[in-house]
Amino acid sequence: MKSVPRLWKELSESSDFVFYEHQTNSEPFFIGYFKSLTEPTVLQQHILSCLSNDSDLSLDDLYHSIPVAEKEISSDGDLIQNKILRGNVAIQYGQQSHHCILVNAAASKGRNVTIPEIEFTVEGPKEAFVESLDINLNLIRKRIPSPELRIKELTAGSVSKSKVAICYIDRIANEQYVDTCIQRIEDVQFDQITNMTILQQMIEDNSNSIFPQTIGTERPDYVAWAVSSGQICVLMDGSPIAIFAPVNLGQFFISFEDYYLPWIIGSIVRLIRMFSVLFSVFATPLYVAVMTYHGQGISNVFLSTIVSSRINVPFPPVVEVLIMELVIELLREAGARLPTKIGQTIGIVGGIVLGTAAVEAALTSNFLLIIVALSALASFTTPIFRMSATIRLLRFPFIFAAQLWGLLGIFICTFAVVAHLLRLTSLGMPYLVPFYPYRSADLYDTVIRPPYSKFHHRFNFFRSPKPVRFDRKNANLKRDIDE
């Protein structure tokens, strides 16, 4: 453990560290803080104003006279150092004493709460998480004003020492999942963890899988829904993204806006979204398989159109598909890396110009251009960005398998993906539940979004100690005031 004089010497090597001696009638006070981390108003009005040159204050007297709620007295050198590095002011009484008063005077610099930029919805709240952990916890507390909401704070990163908060509701979240999440965060061995996406990859069950095993969101209302359902949420100071787990595969294709729409409309939109994901994965591989091996399966209605569109194309179907897929990925990356207005222009103009030029130069056929464009549009319907990236990457193994073995290759690649998903877990929970292991009672909010009268039980695979939400017998009763 570091001594306090040694701590002053080490911290004074930084130019933004302020350390000075305040003389009194008895022992002097030694004050140290980082001016880049502290709020000048709190320092001047609430801390330094309590000191005077002709006073005989002891350390305990000064402690009780400082009008700040977050303060403590400690002799632990490591704790004092960590507190100073987080914006606290340390006050030592006399050179021989190893006790210091630690007063929280951290500067609250950061952006205000804004509208969601990634998960924007037409209906619903327009608040998103920011980089401040305290503000994010406030957004969750406002939506879950329950004394059973538990928040456990941890530290991640040996150098960054980032604050991590684990949120769950006691007697709703399964304790085993909570303990597993805490243990994985505590076992992380890395020096610099500055964003939730870095920690997200380190605590997932299988970090080598392209399928994400936790869901990241910037919406406090989505986190409140997940926590009340029995899931565990993890937030980090400095990151505007929260993650929650355990999750299954079906949740990655559910947009939280589905719950703000009437259940019939929400169900139809969800079905369209799931069909779009399947179309995005299988459209171009099926084109390669049919054009390479199974041309006899093409209907006579489309045969003349397809032949006339490919008659001048010098490449085999697989090369034709790979060229168009890579062009789409280049446009997508260019649009994402450029400023917003320029990126939108590049995406629209570049797609039109390159598509027209590719057809006129006989590098691709009109038929394939339509399929690739629809496949790219279908991939954008995935509401979770990490799963959207997975769907984009997943097409390429299917394309190569279709070139090697045709439809048989697509079936083999499908079986390989399903076998991988069967082995995948999220905090120990099977990834394909409720389909495997089969849970008929948990099918109500997977493919379709049911009415809220059907949400009387939480999902069994979350293993909640309190599975019942409300009494299902009274769910559909509608009483008027004159009854």
From TrEMBL:
<keyword id="KW-0472">Membrane</keyword>
<dbReference type="InterPro" id="IPR004995">
    <property type="entry name" value="Spore_Ger"/>
</dbReference>
<keyword id="KW-0812">Transmembrane</keyword>
<dbReference type="InterPro" id="IPR050768">
    <property type="entry name" value="UPF0353/GerABKA_families"/>
</dbReference>
<dbReference type="GO" id="GO:0016020">
    <property type="term" value="C:membrane"/>
</dbReference>
<feature type="transmembrane region" description="Helical">
    <location>
        <begin position="343"/>
        <end position="361"/>
    </location>
</feature>
<feature type="transmembrane region" description="Helical">
    <location>
        <begin position="271"/>
        <end position="293"/>
    </location>
</feature>
<dbReference type="GO" id="GO:0009847">
    <property type="term" value="P:spore germination"/>
</dbReference>
<feature type="transmembrane region" description="Helical">
    <location>
        <begin position="367"/>
        <end position="386"/>
    </location>
</feature>
<dbReference type="Pfam" id="PF03323">
    <property type="entry name" value="GerA"/>
</dbReference>
<feature type="transmembrane region" description="Helical">
    <location>
        <begin position="398"/>
        <end position="422"/>
    </location>
</feature>
<protein>
    <submittedName>
        <fullName>Spore germination protein</fullName>
    </submittedName>
</protein>
<keyword id="KW-1133">Transmembrane helix</keyword>
<comment type="similarity">
    <text>Belongs to the GerABKA family.</text>
</comment>
